[in-house]
Design brief:
Layout lengths: L12 E4 L1 H16 L12 E4 L12
Antiparallel strand pairs: 1-2
């Protein structure tokens, strides 16, 4: 993730295709604005990107 590129140590993160859930949020907002109940749940594939921050924080007891 570009937001974590400057971090030291490097930060682990989860990466997914944001366009899919952005489209779902826009649909949900439109339905709510029209007074429609929208309780559908969606899933998207995600990838865990392991970097140096996996594990307990330095100095943790």
């Amino acid at each position: 993730m570009p937001a974590f590129e400057w971090c030291e140590p490097s930060v682990s993160c989860i990466r997914w295709r944001s366009g899919l859930w952005v489209r779902r949020i826009v649909t949900w907002v439109g339905n709510v604005a029209k007074g429609k109940e929208d309780l559908r749940q969606g899933f998207t594939k995600a990838e865990f990107v392991e970097k140096a921050t996996v594990g307990p924080a330095a100095g943790a007891k």
